[in-house]
Write a structure and sequence with these properties.
six-stranded mixed beta sheet, alpha+beta, 10% strand, 1183 residues, 70% helix, six-stranded antiparallel beta sheet
């Protein structure tokens, strides 16, 4: 790599654009003083990023822009470019030629470009890191810089060696690694925070998941046991069915036999009737009289038989009602005891609450008093701490006073000696010095004001960055929380929707039809209607069986569905065909408070289903409570059913149904649909929050990046201003010190040494006084600290007492609230039991009235039976009396009658036996039908449990198994609300927790890797630095020996144990002289040593190109030749560009060009190498 050319336009004296070509080897730039030669070197420094305008011989940024000349207007910008050959890829850019440009506008705005592409100063600095090229490196050595290198601080010399060691890039990498480490620490904190949060959520949901798993296991066990019981019961039912079929056949045979016997008896009776007909003719007159009598007797006997049967039934009914009344008496007595017990318990707890309320008041007063003491003590401690800080400040001020007075004392002692020697020059220098000092002071104040504004802006931006970062972190945390909630809710919603889509909760038959894909199915009634949530219990209570009715287009679809269920044996379902149902709407026109309206008007659906609404809900009235319902029923105001908001149902015929069940299937479907709606709204809301939060975070991130960029610029600007201020301060201090010294010299003429002694005494008195002040202040501080320690102990004791009381108060308060809750529950129980008691009393009263009515009925029936018996006896007596005269005629008839009676008895017995046989037959048929229905129901239940593995249940253990089943059902009911989604949620949380734990481990691993990298970089930096230091130290000794005969040179590390703060000092030892630091050498010796030091660096790591400005100015001819010889040795590795007036240097140069300036025009021009060679030749010939 080498410098091909420099392009300058509008920079300092180069008002016109110039393009300077450079060759390899040694190039000399020549020209008279003031022509602008050094401006070329300033231009190179400037384009490499120099920010201190003093280092390029300017006061401010405007000074580097061409200020104009005769017939040449001032430039509006300055621009310098370095064109570098990079065919060896020395620079980390894939270009054969690299162009580095810096441009400044009249407004003060700087631009940096790499290959004509906008870049940043930092990127240019990074490009040249460890190359030896840069604004602070050793590639550009201007006028006086040789001496400045020698006079540099140990840290500055160390920085030069670091550049030669090539560790600047390592140091930059170390800084970057430290930033990465800080970011990793932040990420680790974030991951730890989220991990802890996830752990808490996981732990919370874990118990719910365990409970849900227990519930599922118990439910599966219940289902398995139930299926086993159903199978065993099915086997028993089928066995019973077979046995009863046999009994049915037996009863049927018996009925046939009895019917046959009855038919024969009837035939004989008909024969007897014919024989008796002949007798009847003979006694026609008697028969005609007695016919009516016999009929009357027969009717009366029949009526008596019916009356006796009714009397027996009424007596039995009365006995049942009396036993039921005794049962109600027992229940009422128990209910009264429960009410009394609850009231006693309530009174006892109420008494405890009154006592606790007083105790709570006492606790609050105690805590209030202690809080007051705590506040007083805290204020007292704060005041004393403030006094201590004030005293510490006084002490510090006294110490500063001592230091200032000691300095002044020493100054006054030195002034007496120094001012006498410089008195003659003082008056001449004072005026000029003061003018220059005032100018520097005004510049310093301006820069300070600029720095203050910059710092204020920087502070504002830093605060804004902090606030924005906090806001971004808070938003990120909120977004993570919203995303987690959205994910959880979406998962739950998806599960519920899936359950809804799969028709979970519907009867098996209903579900199978819905999933069958048969055309013409619109859906289930419950899914197609809408109503206010408050009507939910009313609807469920009024039509529980209809809510799962399937609405189909027509009866043909219904037939298809039924055929499908029958064929597949998938259960049963009810259908509402839109072409067959008839609306059944009743009207209610009365205006009664509490009547909400017809259900058909309160429930909505698609217009298509209005017939269904009228059919199902047209005869249902919804009211607020049971009292309104019964009132409407009693007044016959509505002919349909009435239902209340709480689910009590009053039928049109007076039946009242009510109470509370466990959550039914329909209720669960209602709950699921409500939860789906709530979750959909929640998920939509969360997504909106996430989008809004992400937008806010993105906006804040843009602002953050903008502020960060501005902070970077301000940091750079602050650095430049501070450097400028430091330089101005040094200049001002130098001028002030010089002015003070001159003034003191002048005053020393008028005042004698005694005045200085007076000042000395005054300063000593002030120092003594300050020491006394410090001693008294320290005593006072010690006393106050002791008082503060006592007060802090008392404050801790008070805080401890407050914590103890708070704990006690917390326990008492919890007990107080629990008792209040218990009283509320007891009041509800008492109210409920009192209502139950009233209902029992009403039931008892109602049954007592029935018993009275039955007693009256018995008495009436007994009277009727006696009257009938009397009438029968009376008519029989008359009948016998009238037939005595025809006994003879009746003898045969009697015989026939006797036979007839016998046959009638047989007939009655046969009829009774046949009736009983038929009754038995019908009953066994009913039993068989019931068994078949039970078998059908069991099969339907088994179909619902088709995927469940059944337990084997023996017949002998059937009863105990049913008890166990009831026990399992009770356990399931006791579970209460179980979050079945918790299992999946816990699984997701556990997976997230495990993922975060792995991520945390990865971050911890990354942190260790970065820390190891930093350690590795530190070791590499130390190793490379010490290797470079040793090599340059050896080279320096060698160069001192070669360039300055018989001279030893050595570099010495100061404070080597602290690498960051260590420095390097240069020592030399001339022949016959002691080893001494450079500060004690003469000017010529310093120049020779500085050149030796620079050459020592070049020996280790030469810069690709180096600018040297009159480096040989202080050397004699011999040393100049020696220097040029050494430079020639390095030309194979480095390119040298020398600004010189030395003829020897010009002779040894490989190429040469000149710089000239017309003073009238004020613009520097470049003189070509040919012209320079011609001029030199002419001068040589003239000489």
């Amino acid at each position: 790599m080498y410098l091909k050319a420099v392009e300058i336009n509008g920079f300092k004296s180069f008002g016109d654009k110039v393009y300077i070509d450079f060759n390899r080897g040694i190039t000399s730039i020549v020209g008279p003083n003031g022509s602008g030669k050094s401006n070329i070197l300033d231009a190179v420094l400037w384009v490499l990023g120099e920010q201190s305008y003093k280092n390029i011989r300017a006061k401010e940024s405007q000074d580097v822009i061409f200020s104009g000349g005769k017939e040449k207007k001032p430039a509006t910008k300055a621009e310098v470019s370095l064109i570098i050959d990079n065919t060896d890829r020395y620079l980390d850019l894939d270009n054969d030629t690299v162009k580095i440009t810096r441009r400044i506008h009249i407004s003060g705005e700087n631009e940096y470009l790499i290959n004509d592409t906008k870049s940043r100063l930092k990127e240019i600095g990074t490009l040249f890191l460890d190359t030896g090229i840069g604004k602070t490196a050793y590639s550009v050595i201007g006028q006086g810089k040789v001496e400045r290198i020698i006079n540099s601080s140990p840290k500055e010399i160390k920085s030069i060696i670091e550049e030669a060691a090539g560790i600047k890039k390592l140091q930059a990498n170390r800084i970057e690694a430290q930033k990465n480490l800080a970011n990793i620490e932040i990420n680790l904190d974030k991951v730890e925070f989220i991990l802890n949060e996830t752990r808490e959520n996981k732990n919370k949901i874990e118990k719910q998941a365990e409970l849900a798993q227990k519930y599922i296991d118990l439910r599966d066990e219940k289902s398995s046991l139930a299926k086993g019981i159903y199978i065993t019961e099915l086997e028993q039912k089928e066995k019973n069915l077979s046995e009863n079929e046999d009994i049915k056949e037996k009863y049927q045979t018996e009925c046939f036999d009895l019917q046959e016997k009855l038919n024969k008896t009837l035939e004989r009776l008909n024969t007897i009737d014919l024989e008796k007909e002949e007798v009847k003719k003979e006694k026609l007159l008697i028969d005609s009289r007695n016919k009516e009598l016999r009929n009357i007797i027969s009717e009366k006997e029949k009526e008596k038989a019916v009356t006796s049967e009714r009397l027996d039934n009424v007596k039995k009914e009365k006995l049942v009602k009396e036993e039921y009344i005794l049962h109600l008496d027992n229940k009422i007595e128990k209910k009264v005891e429960e009410i009394t017990e609850s009231k006693n318990k309530k009174d006892e707890i109420s008494k405890n609450i009154l006592e606790m309320a007083a105790a709570n008041k006492e606790f609050e007063n105690k805590i209030l008093n202690l809080e007051t003491i705590k506040t007083q003590k805290s204020d007292l401690i704060e005041n004393r701490n403030k006094k201590v800080r004030d005293l510490e400040l006084e002490k510090q001020l006294a110490s500063n006073e001592i230091e200032n007075n000691e300095k002044k004392l020493k100054s006054s002692q030195d002034e007496v000696e120094n001012f006498k020697k410089e008195l003659e020059e003082a008056n001449k220098k004072l005026l000029a010095n003061n003018e220059e000092k005032d100018l520097v002071h005004s510049q310093l104040e301006a820069r300070k004001e600029e720095l203050t504004k910059t710092e204020e802006r920087n502070e504002f931006l830093v605060n804004q960055l902090s606030e924005i970062s906090k806001s971004i972190n808070k938003l990120s945390q909120d977004i993570r929380e919203f995303e987690y909630q959205e994910k959880t809710s979406s998962g739950k919603l998806e599960a519920l929707v899936r359950m809804d889509e799969n028709n979970e909760g519907f009867f098996k038959g209903v579900k199978e039809v819905l999933n069958s894909g048969i055309n013409g199915i619109d859906g289930v009634l419950i899914s197609l209607i809408k109503f206010d949530e408050k009507f939910e219990k009313a609807v469920e209570a009024a039509i529980p069986g209809n809510l799962q009715d399937i609405i189909v287009e027509d009866k043909e679809v219904a037939k298809k569905c039924i055929a499908f269920l029958t064929e597949k044996k998938l259960g049963r379902a009810s259908f509402l065909a839109l072409d067959t149902i008839k609306p059944n709407r009743r009207e209610f026109k009365a205006n009664i408070n509490g009547v909400l309206g017809l259900a058909a008007d309160l429930i909505t659906a698609d217009k298509k289903y209005q017939k269904v609404i009228d059919f199902i809900f047209g005869g249902l009235l919804i009211v607020e409570n049971i009292d309104i319902a019964t009132d409407i029923l009693n007044k016959n105001l509505f002919s349909g059913n009435i239902v209340t908001l709480t689910g009590e149902l009053v039928s049109s015929r007076g039946r009242i149904t009510g109470g509370e069940n466990q959550k039914s299937t329909i209720n669960q479907i209602f709950e699921r649909k409500k939860e789906i709606k709530i979750l959909e709204e929640k998920v939509t809301n969360l997504k909106s929050k996430i989008t809004e939060g992400s937008k806010k975070r993105e906006d804040l991130s843009i602002r953050l990046e903008s502020y960060e960029n501005e902070v970077d610029k301000i940091d750079s600007l602050e650095d430049n201003i501070r450097k400028s201020i430091e330089l101005l301060k040094k200049d001002f201090e130098n001028l002030a010190e010089k002015s003070e010294k001159i003034s003191k010299d002048i005053r020393s003429i008028s005042f004698n040494i005694e005045d200085a002694e007076k000042y000395k005494t005054s300063y000593q008195d002030r120092i003594s006084s300050s020491f006394s002040t410090i001693e008294e202040t320290e005593k006072h501080i010690a006393s106050l600290k002791k008082d503060i320690e006592i007060d802090e102990n008392l404050l801790k004791q008070t805080i401890s007492e407050i914590d103890t009381l708070n704990k006690q108060f917390s326990d008492t308060r919890i007990l107080f609230l629990n008792n209040q809750s218990t009283i509320e529950q007891l009041e509800k129980d008492i109210h409920s039991k009192e209502i139950e008691n009233v209902e029992l009393q009403e039931e008892k009263e109602k049954n007592s009235k029935i018993v009275i009515e039955l007693s009256q009925n018995i008495q009436e029936l007994e009277t009727l039976e006696e009257e009938l018996q009397s009438q029968i006896e009376e008519h029989t007596k008359i009948y016998n009396s009238e037939n005595r005269d025809i006994e003879t005629l009746n003898e045969r008839e009697q015989n026939l009658s006797n036979e007839e009676r016998e046959l009638s008895k047989d007939k009655s017995k046969l009829e009774t036996d046949l009736l009983h046989a038929n009754d038995r037959f019908e009953k066994i048929v009913e039993v068989i039908e019931k068994i078949k229905t039970d078998i059908l129901n069991i099969n339907e239940k088994l179909n619902e449990l088709i995927e469940i593995t059944a337990q084997v249940i023996e017949v002998g253990k059937l009863k105990s198994s049913k008890e166990h089943l009831r026990s399992l059902e009770n356990k399931l009911n006791n579970f209460g609300d179980v979050n079945l989604l918790a299992i999946n949620e816990f699984k997701q949380l556990k997976e997230r927790y495990d993922y975060l734990a792995r991520e945390r481990d990865d971050v911890v691993k990354s942190r260790k890797q970065v820390m190891d990298l930093i350690q590795e970089i530190d070791e590499r930096i130390h190793e490379d630095f010490h290797t470079t230091y040793q090599n340059i130290n050896e080279n320096f000794n060698k160069m001192c020996d070669e360039t300055i005969r018989n001279t030893e040179g050595r570099l010495n590390i100061i404070n080597p144990e602290d690498f960051e703060n260590c420095g390097i000092e240069i020592f030399v030892k001339f022949k016959n002289k002691k080893k001494q630091p450079l500060s004690l050498l003469s000017g010529g010796e310093k120049s020779m040593v500085a050149i030796a030091f620079i050459m020592a660096i070049f020996m280790y790591k030469p810069s690709p190109f180096t600018f040297l400005d009159e480096i040989e100015a202080a050397l004699d001819e011999k040393n100049t030749k020696n220097l040029l010889g050494k430079l020639r040795d390095f030309t194979d590795k480095s390119q040298f560009i020398l600004i010189t007036h030395n003829k020897e240097t010009m002779k040894e140069s490989d190429s040469i060009f000149g710089v000239t300036m017309n003073k009238e025009i004020g613009i520097s021009k470049i003189v070509s190498p040919d012209k320079i060679t011609k001029i030199l030749s002419e001068n040589k010939e003239n000489n």
